[in-house]
């Protein structure tokens, strides 16, 4: 879960990392003492804000107010801008890249440093980045900072500052159980200060840092929140077919199969461990309400859970007039009974995965 | 021979008296005489599914020579359970527990490495060599012994693949369901190496997913393999930045998508499919030289 830039900066500041002076503005009224020229930055939990017009410069107070008003309430990269950060504009001598990331391959934190900080570090190319694994029990030490400084070509007088920035990043990473602490760019100002101009912190939803993220900044839609609320997993996409299944792998596969047939998936609901029909029925009802799909496609190959229970829930949730078309693939435990129940209620129910995907597409065509 | 677990495995269940633990005890006891007991602090002397319960892993090892474990404790107790198993000398453990903080996982995975132990998962369905040994939640009723290996991140896809294998007349040597978390212990590359060495495995089905680099590492192993490999990577339609049910199934970088992974596996010599329903035909073709009845 990404922290908003402002929250990330406040956090790093607590760990001794210098950040630009600035203020968070949610209502369009700027504080008296903003420093000009200023940068106005939309606060959303997503990257690439610069490219989508979410970061603007302002020479005068009036200009800053105008930009803030325009950004507030607008939608950027799928997120409503609820606040903007108005900051001093730094005088830049150099832009650097630094991050500490939990590396999936090493199963350990890795320090990454690059001499070309700026808008899109992915374009800098892997070869220009220095990667130092931070081993358990050793962590980040002064000699790692020195190695990174050498790689970046930092001058002697910046070394102690740079080491302090890295140490702050490392402590934040460890103590907040973060998955990513990134400063990009880390700026060397013309006054020879090091300042974290942009900060991206990704915290583990299961770790200590989860407390730093409120509901609104979680990148979750009402459907995804509702799914979590009833103990399932929801993934909202943009389309017309809702896919309900048991297990993340089969959900992804089903979305792939429908997409390959030209279908558009509205969202996925993983009902993995839902044992009782009544709970399932409520979950299905809410899913339909929130996703408004034209077709709901069930894909269940059950082992312990019973297909006839799922069928019961489907009949309960989708028999009212105006309900979306239903196609079900039921296989496994009491699947014959389940399919018979659905067929009696007028729903399409099949055993073969391939045939059921085809049937879902036919239902989609009919719904159009 | 099989890989990782077989008839020489002596399996215990950690967290044996919880709801999930009891289900594991009952299921494993039904199919596997080498499931030798369970662990639950303070419950020594009880029996579940006609197997003894021990206070600690050390007690269980002393009494039964246990060498493999399934961990089904709640997330808050998972690190302790792993450390206890490591200290008691358990060589392979499958962590079924979901929602363990990633930093905790990182810590115990590195500990396991220094102990020379193998951790499967977390959030893994585990490993089963049908009819021989299991540290897995997979339902043995629909598995059967044979000579095709399955390496998978997903339990649900494994059922689809094993059922289609059965339709083609093939059983499974070993099934390794490695888990959907961002950090996991045993990974595809290690599994593929083991399958390549295993004399009782003639071909392998790999079921990967979007996110991370494990499938790329597996491709490097496959390049040097002489056994046929059929692969499907789920998540071609996954939007970036959204965990697709598995916390680890997260399209985050430009190059960890399902299409890139599929291409890498194909270049390595695997027979790949872009949709699940093409798996049976690909398996039939890739495994046609394998004598099905020998399975």
What does this structure look like?
- The complex is a heterodimer of chains A (368) and B (295).
- Chain A has 368 residues and is an alpha+beta fold.
- Chain A has 3 domains: 21-88, ATP-grasp fold, A domain (Dna Ligase, domain 1, 2-Layer Sandwich), CATH 3.30.1490.20; 92-212, ATP-grasp fold, B domain (D-amino Acid Aminotransferase, Chain A, domain 1), CATH 3.30.470; 222-367, Rossmann fold (3-Layer(aba) Sandwich), CATH 3.40.50.
- Chain A is 33% helix and 27% strand.
- Chain A has helices spanning 5-14, 61-71, 142-152, 159-175, 222-229, 248-260, 277-291, 307-318, 335-344, 353-367; strands at residues 22-25, 38-42, 55-58, 75-76, 79-80, 84-88, 92-103, 108-114, 129-133, 178-189, 194-196, 199-203, 233-236, 241-245, 265-270, 295-302, 325-332, 348-350.
- In chain A, the strands form 4 sheets. In chain A, strands 7, 8, 9, 10, 11 and 12 form a 6-stranded antiparallel sheet that branches. In chain A, strands 13-15-14-16-17-18 form a 6-stranded mixed sheet, sandwiched between helices. In chain A, strands 1-6-2-3 form a 4-stranded antiparallel sheet, with helices on one face.
- In chain A, strand 4 and strand 5 form a beta hairpin.
- In chain A, helix 3 packs across helix 4, helix 7 (277-291) crosses helix 8 and helix 8 (307-318) packs parallel to helix 9.
- The two termini of chain A are 37 Å apart.
- The relative contact order of chain A is 0.10.
- The mean pLDDT of chain A is 90.
- Chain B is of the alpha/beta class.
- Chain B folds into 2 domains: 11-120, 3-Layer(aba) Sandwich (Rossmann fold); 144-294, Rossmann fold (3-Layer(aba) Sandwich), CATH 3.40.50.
- Chain B has helices spanning 19-31, 57-64, 75-87, 102-115, 155-167, 188-197, 214-223, 258-267, 279-286, and strands at 11-14, 35-39, 47-48, 51-54, 68-71, 92-95, 118-120, 126-129, 133-136, 145-152, 172-177, 203-209, 229-234, 271-273.
- In chain B, strand 5, helix 3 (75-87) and strand 6 (92-95) form a beta-alpha-beta unit.
- Chain B is globular, with a radius of gyration of 18 Å.
- At the A-B interface, helix 6, strand 15 and helix 10 of A face helix 4 and helix 5 of B.
């Amino acid at each position: 879960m990404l922290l908003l830039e402002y929250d990330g900066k406040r956090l790093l500041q607590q760990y001794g990392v210098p950040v630009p002076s600035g203020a968070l503005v949610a209502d369009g009224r700027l504080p008296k003492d903003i420093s000009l020229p200023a940068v106005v930055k939309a606060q959303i939990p997503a990257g690439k804000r610069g490219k989508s017009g979410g970061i603007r410069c302002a020479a005068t107070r009036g200009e800053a107010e105008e930009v803030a008003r325009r950004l507030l309430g607008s939608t950027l990269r799928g997120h409503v801008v609820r606040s903007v950060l108005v900051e001093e504009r730094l005088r830049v001598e150099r832009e650097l890249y630094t991050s500490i990331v939990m590396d999936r391959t090493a199963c350990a934190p890795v320090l990454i440093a690059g001499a070309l900080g700026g808008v899109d570090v992915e374009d800098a190319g892997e070869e220009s980045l220095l990667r130092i694994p931070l081993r358990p029990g050793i962590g980040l030490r002064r000699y790692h900072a020195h190695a990174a400084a050498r790689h970046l070509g930092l001058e002697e007088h910046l070394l102690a500052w740079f080491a302090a920035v890295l140490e702050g990043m490392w402590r934040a990473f460890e103590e907040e159980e973060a998955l990513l602490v990134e400063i990009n760019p880390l700026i060397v100002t013309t006054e020879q200060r090091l300042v974290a101009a942009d900060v991206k912190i990704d915290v583990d939803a299961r770790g200590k840092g989860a407390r730093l993220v409120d509901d609104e900044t979680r990148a979750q839609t009402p459907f995804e929140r509702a799914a979590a609320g009833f103990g399932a997993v929801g993934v909202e996409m943009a389309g017309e077919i809702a896919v309900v299944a048991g297990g993340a792998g089969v959900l992804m596969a089903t979305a792939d199969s429908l997409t390959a047939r030209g279908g558009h998936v509205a969202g996925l609901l993983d009902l993995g461990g839902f044992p009782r029909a009544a709970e399932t029925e409520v979950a299905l009802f809410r899913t339909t309400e929130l996703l408004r799909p034209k077709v709901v496609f069930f894909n269940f190959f059950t082992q312990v859970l019973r297909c006839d229970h799922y069928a019961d829930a489907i009949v309960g949730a989708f028999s009212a007039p105006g309900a979306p078309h239903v196609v079900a693939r039921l296989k496994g435990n009491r699947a014959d009974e389940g399919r018979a129940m659905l067929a009696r209620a007028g729903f399409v129910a099949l055993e073969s995965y391939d045939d059921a995907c085809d049937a879902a597409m036919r239902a989609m065509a009919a719904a159009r | 021979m099989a890989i990782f677990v077989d008839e020489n495995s002596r399996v215990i269940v950690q967290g044996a008296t919880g709801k999930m633990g009891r289900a594991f005890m009952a299921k494993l006891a039904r199919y596997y005489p080498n499931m030798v007991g369970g662990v639950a602090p303070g419950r020594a002397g009880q029996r579940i599914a006609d197997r003894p319960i021990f206070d600690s892993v050390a007690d269980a090892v002393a009494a039964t020579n246990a060498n493999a474990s399934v961990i089904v404790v709640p997330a808050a107790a998972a690190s302790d359970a792993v450390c206890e198993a490591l200290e008691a000398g358990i060589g392979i453990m499958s962590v079924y527990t979901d929602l363990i903080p990633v930093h905790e996982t990182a810590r115990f995975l590195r500990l396991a490495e220094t102990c020379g132990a193998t951790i499967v998962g977390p959030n893994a369905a585990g490993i089963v060599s049908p009819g021989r040994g299991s540290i897995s939640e997979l339902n043995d009723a629909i598995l059967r012994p044979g000579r095709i290996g399955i390496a998978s991140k997903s339990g649900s896809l494994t059922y689809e693949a094993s059922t289609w294998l059965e339709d083609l007349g093939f059983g499974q040597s070993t099934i390794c369901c490695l888990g959907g978390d961002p950090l996991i212990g045993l990974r595809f590359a290690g599994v593929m190496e083991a399958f390549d060495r295993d004399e009782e495995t003639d071909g392998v089905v790999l079921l990967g997913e979007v996110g991370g680099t494990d499938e790329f590492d597996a491709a490097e192993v496959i390049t040097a393999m002489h056994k046929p490999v059929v692969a499907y990577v789920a998540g071609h339609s996954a939007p970036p930045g959204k965990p697709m049910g598995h916390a680890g199934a997260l399209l985050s970088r430009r190059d960890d998508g399902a299409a890139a992974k599929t291409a890498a596996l194909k270049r390595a010599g695997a027979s790949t499919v872009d949709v699940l329903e093409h798996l049976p035909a690909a398996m039939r073709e890739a495994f046609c030289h394998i004598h099905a009845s020998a399975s």
